[in-house]
Amino acid sequence: MTTENAFIADFPILDQQVNGHRLVYLDNAATSQKPLVVIEAMDKYYKTINANVHRGVHTLGSLATDAYENARLAVSTFIGAHDEREIIFTRGTTESLNMVAHGYARQHVHAGDEIIITLMEHHSNLIPWQQVANATGATLTYLPLLDDGTISLEDVREMVTDRTKIIAMTQCSNVLGTINPIKEVAKIAHEHGAILVVDGAQSVPHMKVDVQELDCDFLAFSGHKMMGPTGIGVLYGKMEVLEKMEPVHYGGEMIETVELFQSTWKDIPYRFEGGTPIIAGAVGLHAAISYIESIGMNVIEEHDHRLTAYALEKLSAIEGLTIYGPQHDRGALVTFNVEGVHPHDVATVLDTEGIAIRAGHHCAQPLMRYLDVAATARASFYLFNTLQDIDILVDALQKTKEYFGYATR
Ligand code: C6P
Questions:
Q1: Nearest-CA neighbor of 143 among 111, 168, 174?
Q2: Is the beta carbon of 72 within 6 A of some atom in ligand 1?
Q3: Predicted model pTM
Q4: pLDDT at 406
Q5: Within 10 Å of residue 7's Cβ, how many Cβ atoms?
Q6: pLDDT along the chain (409 residues), means of 10
Q7: Strand, helix or coil at 171?
Q8: Quick check: 336 and 376 in contact, CB under 8 A?
Q9: Which ligand 1 atom is the nearest neighbour of the CA of 224?
């Protein structure tokens, strides 16, 4: 696997030089690259089917509706939903979480209630809850982090009360790589009559996620981080919570009848998908799911683990490098800082070597403050990355240190 990787050939974008070097793409947590099968599925859809869904009686209209609804079925099977009506297509994780906050929580959370999130949340699973708390008078509280960047179930048990209405938590941190114990948290939430909202943006692309096994109430994720196109995402909700959720987008597609001063909504999930949906995006996501299934999620997971363990080992050996997050049982990313060098400078120097990583606050400013850093650098992996990619990263980081005079200090 050092240089050979059977999947690289599936990704046309990787066959290029950046700044005179082979592209080493290590920014998959921001967005993953797309295999040719996904690009071709969307191309074929636009070339042969393109029509609006759930409207036309013409042939292309039915083909487009079938393609769109088949994608819903594929997503439903992929995450083990009980019923495909529990799958709502959105623009991505951010829109999915906002839909829960504004369509569900604003209706069911009241003054004096509690919303619990963690300190490692991405802004998309944080700001919507600030908004709900501010609007309803509920209290927003943060589960603390342990020194290794994990949470403690003891803390969860202590913090959750019968006033807790919502626990919202990422399954995998986009900064620390921490994998949270979702199944156990769901159990605690339900013992107190609360619901669990899971941010699956970084987990669904990399590990088997089964919503019935986890018993979460909502799960949000994005197509573009799992080799699908940008602009399509998913909100899974248990039917019983979806029945209590209000639409947030009103207009075409989602109505049953419209009178002058009142209207009624279509059945679930259509009432939540106002306007012309993201049809080609759903087709692309379906192709991405088929691609993942053709490889096997267990194969992807194993590959991720191998790469992450290797990266942790090699990066830990670099003097002056701080790595954040747990040492074991973590997602396919490593976040770090090089002593004395701003992460943006690290990323800029790596780019001159053809290496793409992300630098910044990773949309997790409260976490950055907790870690006492303004920003960090992050390398994130996927199935087309190799051990050689990590060796190239490590060499380039050594060069970066030399360039900024670390070795001579
Ligand atoms: N994180 C990253 O580089 P959207 O943008 O809606 O597809 O996903 C938002 C989101 C929500 N939760 C988590 C845990 C995430 O990692 C992300 C996206 C990217 O880390 C872009 S900031």
A1: 168
A2: no
A3: 0.97
A4: 67
A5: 18
A6: 78 98 98 98 98 92 97 98 98 98 98 98 98 98 98 98 98 98 98 98 98 98 98 98 98 97 98 98 99 98 98 97 96 97 97 98 98 98 98 97 73
A7: coil
A8: yes
A9: 7
What's the pLDDT score for residue 55?
Answer: 83
Q: 387-403 and 343-352 helices cross at what angle (nearest 10)?
A: 120
Q: Does one domain contain both 54 and 178?
A: yes
Joined tokens for residue 25: 């793409």
Domain containing residue 330: CATH number: 3.90.1150.10
- Does ligand 1 lie within 6 Å of residue 118's CB atom? no
On whether the CB atoms of residues 171 and 196 are closer than 8 A, the answer is no
Query: Is position 144 within any domain?
Result: yes
Q: Is residue 33 part of a domain?
A: no
What CA–CA distance (Å, rounded) separates 180 from 183?
9
Give me the number of domains the chain comprises.
Answer: 2
Nearest CA to ligand 1 atom 3: 30
Query: Which residue type does 140 have?
Result: L
**Quick one: DSSP state of residue 246?**
P
